[in-house]
Design brief:
alpha+beta; 17 helices; about 425 residues; two-stranded antiparallel sheet; 5-stranded antiparallel beta sheet
C-alpha cells in the first residue's frame, strides 16, 4: 500500500544513465511513493500510456500477479467497496477496469480479441462477413458499433448488450493470466464518452475462473501431438497484432508447440488467439486421424446426433402448448430461459435464436458445439437439458392441457436417446 504525497512537480532531475537504467522514455519521470528500510516505491509518469492513467489519484496498491492472483486482488477491492482504477500489464497486454464501490462499471483493453466486433462475433450476433464489411467502411471518426447498426446487422439493443458483454469479457479474461503486474488508484475515475454500467464483480470473478479453466482445457487439447493447425485458403482481412503473427507463423499443417514459439507468444495467449482466428475463419484446428481410423468424425457425428435429439424433443414438448395458446408465448418464455441458462453455458446458448413455437435451428447449435473445447457432448446435454426440463415442467403444469401424461409417455422413446 502507498500514498502519494508529492505531486508530479516534485520529481527530481535524473541523469541520462539513471533514466536509461530505469527504462524511462524521453518525456517520462518518476516520483517516490514510499520509502522504507528495505524498499523504495517509485511511480512512473508523464510518458505515453496505452490508457489515460489517473495521475491525480492515489496509487494505493501494486502487486505481482504471480504472487497475488487477480481474483484475490479484485475480491479484496470488492470487499472493501473501493472506487478506483485497476490497471493490468503483462508484456504487450494492457487492460484497465473501472470500479465504483467495488463493482465493475467499465473496462478497456489493447487486445484485438477484446474489441467490440470480436465480442459480438463470439456472441453469434454478427457473422465474420458482416464484421469484415463494417471494418472496410471504418474510419477513425466512426464507431464500429454504429456502422453495424446502420447496416442493419445489429439492433440498438443488441449493440448495448454487446458493449456490456465486451466489458464482462475483458474482466473475465484477466483471470487467465498467471504473470504481470497490477496497480490500483483509489478515487472516482470515470472513462470518457461511455455510459457507466453496473456489473456484479463477484459474478464476473466466478465466470472468469470458469473461463480460465476452459482455456486451460483447450490449451491441453492443443498440446496433444495429434492436433494440427492450418491457415485457411482465404485468411480473414484486417488482422493485426497477435492474430497476424499466428497466421504468418503457420506453414501448412502445424503443431501448437512450434507455432507459439515462432509467433513469439506464450502458450495461453496463442490459445486465445487461435480461438478468435477460428471464429474469423482464418484458421482450422483439428485432430489428425490415426491410420485407418475415423475417431474425430465419429465424435463430431455424436455431437450432431445429441443436438438433433434434444431439438426434436423440445419441438415435441412445445407442440401441445402451441396448440392451446399459439406460438409467440412459448417462444418468448423459452428465449428467457435460454438467456438465463447462457450465463452457465455462454458458448452454446448466448443469443440463441428461437423461432415461433419454441423451435430451435439445430445447425445453429451444432456449429457452436463443434467449436467447443472439452467434453462437447456432455456440455450440449447439460445446456439443452435445461431447456428440455423447463418445457417438460411447463407441459405438466399448463392449465389448458388436461392430460399431459399422454404426451410425456409418447416421448419416452425419444427421451431415452438423450
Amino acid at each position: 500500500m502507498a500514498r502519494d504525497s508529492d505531486g508530479p512537480g516534485a520529481a527530481p532531475q535524473l541523469s541520462d544513465d539513471l533514466r536509461s537504467w530505469l527504462g524511462l522514455q524521453e518525456h517520462e519521470s518518476v516520483r517516490v511513493l514510499a520509502s522504507g528500510a528495505r524498499a523504495i516505491l517509485l511511480e512512473r509518469f508523464g510518458g505515453a500510456s496505452p490508457v489515460a492513467l489517473p495521475w491525480d489519484r492515489d496509487l494505493v496498491l501494486t502487486a505481482d500477479v504471480l504472487a497475488f492472483p487477480l481474483p484475490e486482488l479484485l475480491n479484496l477491492i470488492h470487499a472493501a467497496a473501493k472506487s478506483g482504477f485497476l490497471f493490468f500489464e503483462d508484456e504487450s497486454h494492457t487492460k484497465a477496469v473501472y470500479l465504483h464501490h467495488g463493482e465493475v462499471v467499465f473496462a478497456t483493453s489493447n487486445q484485438n480479441a477484446d474489441r467490440l466486433g470480436e465480442c459480438l462475433l463470439r456472441m453469434g450476433v454478427i457473422t465474420a462477413e458482416q464484421l469484415s464489411e463494417a471494418r472496410a467502411a471504418y474510419t477513425p471518426q466512426t464507431q464500429i458499433g454504429r456502422l453495424l447498426v446502420d447496416r442493419g446487422f445489429l439492433t440498438p439493443r443488441e449493440l448495448w448488450n454487446g458493449v456490456k458483454l465486451q466489458v464482462e469479457e475483458i474482466v473475465r479474461s484477466l483471470f487467465s493470466y498467471g504473470s504481470g503486474t497490477v496497480c490500483f488508484w483509489e478515487g472516482e475515475v470515470r472513462p470518457d464518452n461511455v455510459v457507466r454500467l453496473s456489473l456484479p464483480t463477484r459474478r464476473l470473478i466466478g465466470e472468469g475462473l470458469k473461463r480460465r479453466d476452459e482455456l486451460l482445457k483447450y490449451l491441453a487439447w492443443l498440446e496433444d501431438p495429434g492436433v494440427r493447425i492450418a491457415a485457411t485458403a482465404r485468411p480473414a482481412a484486417s488482422l493485426s497484432g497477435a492474430e497476424r503473427a499466428v497466421v504468418q507463423a503457420l506453414q501448412g499443417d502445424d503443431r501448437f508447440a512450434s507455432l507459439y514459439r515462432r509467433a513469439e507468444l506464450d502458450p495461453l495467449s496463442c490459445a486465445r488467439t487461435l480461438q478468435l482466428l477460428g471464429l474469423l475463419g482464418a484458421v482450422k484446428v483439428f485432430k489428425a486421424e490415426e491410420p485407418g481410423g475415423d475417431a474425430a468424425t465419429a465424435a463430431d457425428d455424436a455431437v450432431r446426433d445429441c443436438v438433433i435429439a434434444h431439438v426434436k424433443l423440445l419441438a415435441e414438448f412445445s407442440a401441445p402448448i402451441v396448440a392451446v395458446e399459439g406460438s409467440e408465448g412459448i417462444r418468448d418464455r423459452l428465449e428467457r430461459v435460454a438467456e438465463e441458462a447462457s450465463r452457465r453455458y455462454p458458448e452454446l446458448l448466448s443469443n440463441l435464436r428461437v423461432a415461433p413455437g419454441g423451435v430451435l435451428d439445430p445447425e445453429q447449435i451444432i456449429e457452436r458445439a463443434l467449436r467447443f473445447p472439452g467434453e462437447r457432448e456432455r456440455e450440449v446435454g447439460l445446456a439443452l437439458g435445461e431447456l428440455v426440463s423447463y418445457l417438460e415442467f411447463e407441459l405438466m403444469n399448463h392449465p389448458k392441457i388436461d392430460d399431459p401424461d399422454e404426451f410425456l409417455e409418447a416421448m419416452e422413446g425419444l427421451r431415452a436417446q438423450l
